[in-house]
Amino acid sequence: MTEATTPVVYKPGLFEQRREGRGFSVGELRAVGLSVKQARKLGLRVDGRRKTVHGWNVEGLRRFLEALRQRDVAEQPKELEAEGVRHDKTETELEEAAKVEEKPKERRRGRREDKPAETGEKPKRGRRGRKKKEDTG
């Protein structure tokens, strides 16, 4: 399972020599049916710069996901198995990762103004946009 968590990259010119890659490409993740957020949630490394899709990495990801599903099915609580209820953590994790709530972005426009006095006057500002110190003397 650890082989799938690190992608395999062959050194240029020397196809026999392999090394550990920086991360899986987005295309390799899509070929398996994962998004970038789901892959990171599962602990997989993602390299957004790579554009290539290598078959050996896709096959390694498929084996990794299958082993993950089998492990979670084997770890089901015994009471739920007796009742016939299927408890699959990977399916629920993938469903939760797919339901990403998008929050509306708050846009900040300009500086945040202090509340003007009740008279309707704007607060006095210095050269650098800060409040001027009032003369108390």
Descriptors:
137 residues; mainly alpha; two-stranded antiparallel ribbon; 2 strands; elongated
What does the model show?
The chain is built from 6 helices and 2 strands. Strand 1 and strand 2 form a beta hairpin. Helix 2 packs across helix 4. The longest helix is centred in the middle third of the chain and has 20 residues.
Describe the secondary-structure layout:
Blueprint: H1 2-5, E1 8-10, E2 18-20, H2 26-32, H3 36-41, H4 55-74, H5 78-83, H6 89-98
Helix pairs in contact: 2-4
Keywords: Ribonucleoprotein, Ribosomal protein
Region (Disordered): 69-137
GO biological process, one term: translation
The counted number of beta strands is 2
Shape: elongated
Share of β-strand residues: under 5%
Structurally, the number of domains stands at 1
Q: In a nutshell, what does this entry contain?
A:
This protein has six helices and two strands. With 137 residues, the chain is mainly α.
